[in-house]
Specification:
59% of the residues lie in helices and 0% in strands. With 90 residues, the protein is mostly helical. The two termini are 22 Å apart.
Length: 90
Amino acid sequence: MWPFILVKSKAYKTNAVFINHERIHLKQQLELLILPFYLWYGLEFLLRLLTYKNHLKAYKNISFEREAYSKEADLHYLKRRKPWAFIMYL
């Protein structure tokens, strides 16, 4: 939830890949002016759920998640990320 990264346990605070994944989401949220991000995310999840009929598959195929998961290990990704990059993952 912008501008915070919420974690389940303290161990996540030191996990660079997890933090990078969440920072990618923060960037996505800013690009969409925050509220539209959540609306798009929810709508896309519902559409993917209708398509895959599986919560996990639906979640993993949301464009925002696809970008974040594919780039989470690249700790320099945000420095060169182009605006609206998640569109490539639709």
